[in-house]
Backbone:
């Protein structure tokens, strides 16, 4: 591979999940700064979330994280289903992201519905589990704090 991919450089055997890790910043041609974070919920190569749980968490975190933190560009699930990547404008600090994540997961635990779970707004609207999302939110909250 010609270019290095930051996440491929991480030794997944040495990390201890759950955690919030700043992957780095990138500076655009016009001086804009973007921060990237690894929001790891599950221990790599030992645990993973089922697709319905991570999909529901994606929908819930998309809104809840923005309630507590401005400038979020995107929150996307990792293909390995162990967590999420989050990117935001500016050089952001881990504590800001961690605090927003904790508050968001607390809202997940008390959520009564999942936004955008219909065929117009979601590409796989039938693959959701609010129950599972709540269970994984509790799991992370018990260990992240």
Residues:
């Amino acid at each position: 591979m010609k270019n290095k991919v930051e996440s491929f450089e991480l030794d997944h055997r040495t990390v201890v999940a759950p955690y919030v890790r700043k992957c780095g910043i990138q500076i655009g041609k016009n001086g804009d700064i973007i921060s990237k974070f690894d929001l790891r919920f599950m221990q790599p190569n030992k645990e993973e979330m089922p697709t319905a749980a991570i999909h529901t968490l994606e929908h819930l975190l998309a809104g809840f994280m923005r309630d507590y933190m401005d400038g979020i560009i995107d929150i996307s699930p990792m293909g390995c289903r162990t967590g999420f990547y989050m990117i935001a404008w500016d050089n952001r600090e881990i504590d800001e992201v961690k605090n927003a994540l904790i508050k968001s997961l607390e809202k997940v635990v008390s959520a009564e519905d999942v936004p955008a779970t219909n065929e117009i707004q979601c590409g796989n609207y039938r693959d959701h589990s609010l129950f599972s999302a709540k269970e994984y939110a509790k799991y992370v909250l018990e260990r992240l704090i």
